[in-house]
Each structure stands twice: as structure tokens, then as C-alpha cells.
Amino acid sequence: MDAMATAFEARNVSKSFGVVHALRGVSVSIRPGEVHAIIGENGAGKSTLMNIICGRLRPTAGELLVGGAAVQFHSPGEAQGAGIAIAPQEINLVPALTVTENIMLGAEITRGPAIDWRATREEALTHLHAVDDTIAGDARAGELSKAQQQLVQIARAVATKARILIFDEPTAALTTRETEKLYAFIRRFRETGGSAFYISHRLDEILDLSDRISVLRDGTYVGELDPKRTSKHEMVALMAGREVALSTHAPRRLEDRPVVLKVSGLSRPGEFEDVSFELHEGEVLGVSGLVGAGRTEVAKCIFGLTRAKAGSVEIFGDARPVTDPADAIQRGLVYLPEERKQEGIFPLLSIAENLTIATLDRFRGPAWMDFRGMARTVDDYVDRLRIKIGSASDPITSLSGGNQQKVILGRWLAKNAKILILDEPTRGIDVAAKSEIQGVLDSLTAAGLSIVYISSELEEVLNVSDRILVMHEGRVKGTPRTEDMTQESLLRLAMS
């Protein structure tokens, strides 16, 4: 490619972590005014490549060029000095600081030896409003929703005034309204000659937003696709190196089956009001709604993490109030949180320990542990849930996001969970792994497991659910059958 037409180029970049080769001779480039999507399965090397480009990591081999000139970045600050900044997937804001303070952290405007806070706040709001005009600049970052925190992180990257922005799963925590705002910003940024590397597992937005698509597989570059001429099936096949059947679910009529969970008039001031629904044995009840609809708040209340002001929850006909999560688990109901890394896994423990940690009493003898029994249980769920592992003694962090999610699922199935509340269970997971998880859930519901499935992705909710509970600003707007809804009608109901 002509260097003069290239804003940035990575040539033959490799990265090794000990004996693990995360990248092998990968070359990518980006032109001014271009959105270049980088796709691949979990573990393909996308984030490693982006972390090298933004200065977080140094390559083992290869070179980086900005405007045709070779550069070496020893820190993100050096990359920002060269006009490159990243909006990472992981939230890394300072919770105690305000939104504006987080956006301008390390880049405050000074007047002499002192910070000019008025000018700093005005500058921060300019960048914030370029992305979202509803978030208050004086709000504490720790009090924001995950979606709002993600938008603030994007605004912080924008505040560096970089001409090359890296977006790593930027819409994973966003729903349609916030995603459209981000799209609009990226298109404006592109029109000014700015460039963007864009990583996402949401293939529809890749096709809608990108000018070029590069595909990585197992740390290597395997090809480039034209978004105007390719399809989701072709993208998935190239990412996986094989044909992958995208999961779909045929909605079932389960009204004749017993009700396993009944929620009546559940209210918690400031979060949700008068929420009622029933979940039948073997049913997948999708829960849809925009950010702030109250979906996660309802789930946490049912599970006993918070207390309702009014209303009741019946689990298998038992109307006793759920006192805490341990009580809910004992009664067969489990909640898998949205924040898998922070609230779902034990990162310092092994795969086996993560899977069996809720059932250790089963393997404890008077003076010994039944390690063989633990190993048999782990092997059973690795096989049943098709978890891809090297060794059960490997750390849980060695697994891809999809396989981590399967381990958490196995943990609670081993605990004899009968009702699962899954909060964004496929967030940050590639399409093939998502399809595998949805296939596993389909087989589990066929065996009688009941699932409440919370997701911000309309297509996903329609694919997995029998019925859909639609929420808006803490209230239930309806519970239509999936077969009667489209993405458009579901969005209209969620925004009504």
C-alpha cells in the first residue's frame, strides 16, 4: 500500500508470552477517513494487536509506522503523542472522580502552576457531548451505569484529540439508542479524516459501519473482506476456519407446564415498579429493554442481592421471601452476573476450582478431600458443556470468554440449579462461542431447566427466547411471544 495514503501500518507483527504465540507475523493498515474492522474468535489476537498499536504492549518482532515513518511506543502516552488512542473494553475509570475529571485525567488545562478547572470542565464536556449529551459532567463515575461508563471511556479517548481511535467492543454494554449515538460520532470523525480500528463480535454493526474487514485466526492474519460483498456466514466461517451453524431457537408453547418462578408486583423505588411475570418449566424468558430499563436491578432483587419495597417472589410455589443469594441458591435459583470478570470468576483459581467451588462440601471428608470425585465432576461438565480446556489445573483466565462462561454455568448446574437468571451471558463472546452456548442452553431447557435471559442484543433475544419480557424505565411494557415480534417491533415496544 502507498505509504502516503496510509495513516498507520503494522508490518509482520508478532507477540509471544513465553511459549504462547499470541500473534504471528500480522500486518494491517488504516487509511485516513477509514473504519477498519478487526474480527476473529476469542483468542484470535485482536486485543493483543490493538494493545501493541496503542502502546500498551511492545511487539516481539515486526514494526509500526505512522504516516510511513517507523515508530516505537514504550507507553500509551507515546502512542497518544503520535495520534493514537484506545477506548478499551474493560472499564478503567476512577470511581471517586467526576465524569469530567476522568475524561481529562492527566490532560488538565493549566494556568501557570495551577489547574484551570473551569476550562478543564468545559473542554471535557465538549468531548463528552460529542459522544453523548445525556450524561452529567459532575456525576461520579462510580455511580454511572456500565453503559454510561463505557461512553465516558470513549469520550476520554476522544479527548486525546487522536486521529486514529481504537474501539475494542465499544457497544458490548450499550443498547440500540447509545449504539446509534456512537455510530453517529464515528461517522462524523471519519468525515473529518479521522481513522478507526473497530473490534466487535456484533457482525451486523461490522457490516454497517466498516470500510474494510480484516480477519484474524489463532494469532495469524487469514484474509480481508469487503463489507459490501460479504455475509455473516462468510465472516464466521473465515474466523473459525470451518462452517459454523448460527444458532436459532424455535419458540415453544409451554403454558401447560408448571410455573417455577412467579414474580408479582415487585417494586424497588428508583429502580423498578410493579414488575410481574411467570416463568414455566423448560422455558427461556428473554428480558429486553434499553439501558436504564431496570432489567439487572430486577434480577438482583429476585436473587436476594437487594430487597424489594413491595411485591413477592415465588420459587416452585414457595412464597417465602428470598433472604439472600445463599437462600436463593439453596432453593434452586441462580443468577449469573453481567460482569463475568469482576463478579463471576475467581481469577486466581484453576478451572477445576472455579467449577467446583460451590460444591466443595460434597467432596470434603473428615480429614481429606475427594480429589478424584472433583476430577470426575469437572470432566463430566467439561464434556456436557463442550468446554475447550488444556488441563483442568490451568488458571480460569487461560480460557476464552465463552469457555469461562461455560465453567460458571457448570458450577451452578453441579449445584443442582433449576432456574438460571443469565445477565448478558454472551457479552464479549465471539459468534461461534455464542452459538455453542445457546445450543447448550437449548439442550438444558429441553431437560427441564428454566432460564431468564437478559440481553441488550435484540437479535439474540429473538433467537433464544420463547417469550420476551419488555421493560422501559423500570416498568413492564408487555410479554409478547417471540414468534410475534421483530427487532423493529421489539424496539418500538421498549421505547414506548
Automatic annotation (TrEMBL):
- Could you name the domain of life of the organism this protein comes from? Bacteria
Listed A to Z, the keywords are: ATP-binding, Cell membrane, Membrane, Nucleotide-binding, Repeat, Sugar transport, Translocase, Transport
Molecular function as annotated in GO: ATP binding; ATP hydrolysis activity
**Which InterPro entries has this protein been placed in?**
AAA+_ATPase, ABC_carbohydrate_import_ATPase, ABC_transporter-like_ATP-bd, ABC_transporter-like_CS, P-loop_NTPase
Which Pfam families does this one have? ABC_tran
Q: Which residues form the ABC transporter domain?
A: 8-243, 254-496
Instruction: Give the Gene3D superfamilies listed for this entry.
Output: P-loop containing nucleotide triphosphate hydrolases
Name of the protein: ABC-type sugar transport system ATPase subunit
